[in-house]
């Protein structure tokens, strides 16, 4: 299948139309965002279980739509991925800072820390960065019309997720220090 050795990793892949559970294959020493940012248009997934869209994990058996030995997913349709390995920054850590951000995907938020070059405006970075980025210490927050955003509780926590900046419907930055921790998801 591949010319160079690959490491198999379990992954959950979220699109607007599906949740796909299966295996992805990373080059040793590379992360999930590295794989997704390659110029190839499709992500190969083996042992794919395709479920209705949503974010609930684990999915219910009734939500299973198909079981496929091999599935090539269009990368541009991928919203975010759980699994694989975090991608390490390609620049000196002294040139980067962690920014606390929340990314809106339909009826939920993914919040966590994104590594951003120091002194660069967030909007400029988001416009110029590669589409797939590693969000560290991520949390998934379902939105609720009857609860203020500051009262939301995380549904799930992840050491990292790989998200597609181009698929996020909105991005919110946490307030700077000092701030009242009750005013933010990031407190």
Indicate the low-confidence ranges by residue numbers: 176-180
The percent range for helix content is under 10%
Return the domain count: 2
Please compute the radius of gyration using only Cα atoms.
Answer: 17 Å
Classify the fold: give the CATH topology of the largest domain.
SH3 type barrels
Structural class: mainly beta
The tally of beta strands, per DSSP, is: 10
CATH C-level label of the largest domain: Mainly Beta
Characterization of this structure:
By secondary structure, the protein is mainly beta. It folds into two domains: 7-83, SH3 type barrels (Roll), CATH 2.30.30.100; 93-176, SH3 type barrels (Roll). 6% of the residues lie in helices and 47% in strands. It has two helices and ten strands, in the order ββαβββββαβββ. It has helices spanning 32-36, 122-128; strands at residues 7-15, 19-26, 42-51, 64-74, 78-83, 96-105, 108-117, 132-142, 156-164, 170-173. Strands 4-3-2-1-5-9-8-7-6-10 form a ten-stranded antiparallel sheet. Mean pLDDT is 90; it is low at 176-180.
Please render the helix and strand layout as text.
Blueprint: E1 7-15, E2 19-26, H1 32-36, E3 42-51, E4 64-74, E5 78-83, E6 96-105, E7 108-117, H2 122-128, E8 132-142, E9 156-164, E10 170-173
Antiparallel strand pairs: 1-2, 1-5, 2-3, 3-4, 5-9, 6-7, 6-10, 7-8, 8-9
Quick structural summary:
The chain is built from two helices and ten strands, in the order ββαβββββαβββ. The chain is mainly beta.
């Amino acid at each position: 299948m591949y010319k160079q050795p690959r490491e198999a990793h379990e992954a959950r892949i979220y699109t607007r139309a599906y949740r796909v559970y299966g295996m992805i294959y990373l080059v040793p020493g590379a992360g999930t965002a590295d794989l997704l940012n390659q110029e190839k248009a499709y992500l190969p997934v083996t042992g794919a279980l395709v479920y209705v869209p949503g974010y609930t994990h684990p999915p219910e058996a009734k939500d299973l739509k198909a079981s496929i030995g091999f599935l090539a997913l269009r990368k541009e349709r991928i919203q975010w991925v759980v699994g694989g390995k975090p991608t390490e920054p390609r620049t000196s850590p002294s040139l980067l800072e962690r920014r606390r951000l929340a990314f809106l995907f339909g009826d939920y938020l993914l919040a966590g820390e994104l590594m951003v070059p120091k002194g660069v405006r967030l909007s400029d970075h988001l416009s110029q960065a590669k589409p797939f980025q590693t969000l560290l210490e991520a949390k998934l927050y379902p939105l609720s019309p009857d609860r203020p955003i500051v009262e939301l509780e995380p549904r799930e926590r992840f050491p990292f997720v790989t998200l597609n900046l181009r698929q996020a419907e909105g991005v919110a930055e946490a307030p700077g220090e000092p701030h009242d921790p009750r005013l933010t998801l990031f407190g």
